[in-house]
Every structure is written in C-alpha cells, then in structure tokens.
C-alpha cells in the first residue's frame, strides 16, 4: 500500500451560508497523478482553495504528510510544500517573466540555489527563457500557463495542485500542458489535478475522483469504469442512470 | 515677468514636493490594499500633534520633533490599519473578503476621532511650531530661495529615490509589487500578504509623517485642519497623477504645486483651490486615468 501525501476527510467549506463542499473525503498518493473530475459548480475549485488556505474550511480535516493544515494561511501552506497553479493562471502581468519566477521562490531561504532552479526551468520551458525580460501579461495564454506552473515549481513543492490547466487553451497547447504534467510526475512531483477535460485527464491520471454537488460520488483507476460513463458524469453530473 | 514665472515655478515645485510625498503614501496604501484611507491625513496630523505637544511641554530640537512626528504617524497609522483595514482585507474568498466601503467609512470615523483627540490634548485652534529655518531667504540673482523649501525638496527627492530602490531592487519590493498586481497570486506564491499590508501601511505612514512635519515646520504653525488638508492634497495629487501609480503620484504632486503657485500669483490667493479643483475636474473628464496612469491591474 502506498501512503497518502494529502488526506482530506469530511471537509466542509462554504461561501457564506452556501456549502460548496459537503463533507469531502479523498486522498492523493505520494508520487502519483490524482485527478478530480466533475461538472461546473461541483466544488472542485473550492477544494483547491481550501487546500491552499485561501478559503478557511468550516469543518473536517486536511492532512499533508501527516500534519493538519486545514485553516492555515496560504503562505504557511506554500512553506509546507504545497503549491497551487490557479485557474486562469494569475501571473503578475506587469512583472517580467524572471520576476514572476523570483516571486515564486519568495520564501525560500536558499537564495543561492534559486538561480540554478530558474536555469533548470528555462531548460524545461525554452519559450519562457526567450521571453525572460518580457512582461508576463504580453505572453500568450499557453505561455502564461507554463509560467504559472514554473512559478509554482519555484517553491520546490512536494505536492503540485493544478486547477484546470487546460482551460481556454488551443488543443495543441493542451497536449503540451499534459506532456508537462507527465514530465513533472516522472521527475518525482506528486500532482493533484482538477480538470474539465476528462478525456485528457484520464489519459495521464493514476487515480481519479468524481465530484458532484459538493460530494465525492465515485473514485477509481482509469480503466476500472467505462470511460464514456465517467466523462458523461463529469460533464453532466448525473448521479444515477 | 519671466522672473515672476521662474520664481513661481520654484515655489510651486517646493510646495508640490510635499504634495508628492503625501500622494506617494496615499498611493502605496491604495495600490496595495485597494482601499481608500480617509484617515491617512488625520494620522499624520496625530503624529505632528504629538510633536507639537512635546514642543509645548518640554521643547525639543528639530530632529527630535521630526522623529516624534514620524513615529506618531506610524503608531496612528497602525491603529487605523488594525481597526479599519485588517478586518476588511481584499484577500480571501467568499465571506473572508472584506468590504471596501466599510473600510473607508471606518477610516472616516477614525478621522473624526483623531480631530477630537487633538483638540482635547491641545485645545487652542492654532499652535506655533518651531520653524525649520528662521533666517531670511537666500537670493540667487533676482530669485528668492527659501531654505525650508529647499530642505523639503531635497527630502522629497531623497525619499523618492529611496522608495524606488526599495520597490525595484529589494526582496521586500518584489513582494509589494506582487501584492499590488494581484494579492491572490502573491499569497499563492508564498508571500505573507497580511504582513506586506502592515509593513506598507507603516512605510506610507512614515512618509506621510515626514511630509506633515515638513509642512508644519515650513509654516511654523499647526491646526487640527492639517488632517483634512493632508488627505485632500494627497488624494488630489494621486488622482491628478493616476490612481495607484507611484510615478503618477510624484508627478501629480508637483503639478498640483505648480498650479497652486501660479494661480495664486496670477489670479489671487482666493482662487488657488478653485483652480486646482477645476483642473482636476477637466483632467478627469478628458483623461480619467490621470497624467501617468497605473497600468491595468491583473
């Protein structure tokens, strides 16, 4: 049995009185790509926000490497080793590509190793290197997504959360993003991925969860259930046929 | 004729440099917190009143009074931050995201509190403040250069250079600029955003405290109106330059000083503020983003 790096149990999160997560339990195993599927409004982003500390959960627990992190501040959670690549990328548009990466390493004490990490990321993302001095807001959508991933990696996370990385990108760029996801996994990063693009997600994931209306309604390995059934539920959110 | 123009321009730049400092502090708070702090001027007034109180009761040197004004403004600013802005932060999702209007109204309440406190501690409307320089102006050819104006200008230039270095050359500056661009992205990058808020508030209050000190020490007097005056001039200069833009704040302050100096000379002192507000109105109608706009926020 492999051990869970992230363990969410009975998590309840709400926006005011509206509960977006109604007792979610799931686990992300060390060294694996875990994928969270589900229709719009299922609570996927809310789970990401709660894990990253942006939204304080009302009840339940989030354990990371055995330590309770629910309700911690976002910067403290980054320090623990979780980085979120947010939906819609959120690069710093008027800062250079290089400064975006430096910001990602903001709380690292090993100032000397940061330069080396930037070089490594530039080798992984050559187009970011070409645009190093350029303002991030002038990059294409795909390049901004890569910058957002690279910025998250600058904190040397043990767990990378990715919220809809393929959103709004052209099919070729989506292919590239998923290639990056598998590359990162091969290099030892544990990945927890939220996707609308269930087809692509099921190709890379080792394990997946299906979320509908604030609850996990199904979990399994790709192949354990007919793909079209998963996709139908991921998009349409029909709980029972 | 030309001599008048040059003389007024010199006076306007000196006046404008205090406006520039006030606007820079205002803009830092606005840029980072996305909140209007109406108590910005009153906190400065509180700092200057602390200096005045020290002067009235004990007497102290110029430097000591300046330090008291700055420290007092920072303390008063911290009080404003705790009461008005910490509960209404722009970060967080859903119910954790605070209300900008509530923060602004709360800062108005503290404005009144500061004014009342000032008149309780020092009940006369006007107090003398030790002047920066008691000698006459220097004469350079046909022009008069007031020493206090030169000191103010030099201090403003030094502060702007220092701030530029701080924001664009240091790790703290990187965090501040990141928060200005996107507080959400900044916290996800591991930046302690609330701590940046507090430190920027302290920095802006210190700059404001120095500006306030330079104003009262140049005039040689202080009234509780200093609070309203600082908020208005800072806000006016900030809007002239462009909301949230630091170079714009400096430019807006200088332009406001020039407008005031020239309109006072050519049209009479009673038209000074009238012309300034009229020009602000025309500018906002024609160019709502200001003279040196901040680039769109992400």
The helix content of chain A, as a percent range, equals 25-40%
CATH topology of chain B: ABC transporter involved in vitamin B12 uptake, BtuC
Radius of gyration of chain A: 17 Å
Query: What is the CATH superfamily label of chain A?
Result: P-loop containing nucleotide triphosphate hydrolases
- Please give the number of β-strands of chain A: 10
| Oligomeric description of these chains | heterodimer
Question: CATH architecture of chain B, please?
Answer: Orthogonal Bundle
What is the number of domains of chain B? 1
Main CATH class of chain A = Alpha Beta
According to CATH, what is the class of chain B? Mainly Alpha
Question: Which consecutive residue ranges of chain B, at least 5 long each, have pLDDT under 50?
Answer: none
What is the typical, i.e. mean, pLDDT of chain B? 90
The fold-level CATH name of chain A is Rossmann fold
Proportion of strand residues of chain A: 25-35%
Largest sheet of chain A: 6 strands, mixed
- Structural class category of chain A: alpha/beta
Domain tally of chain A: 1
Order of helices and strands of chain A: EEEHEEHEHHHHEHEHEEH
Q: What's the number of extended β-strand segments of chain B? A: 4
Q: In angstroms, what separates the terminal alpha carbons of chain B?
A: 49 Å
Beta-strand content estimate of chain B: under 5%
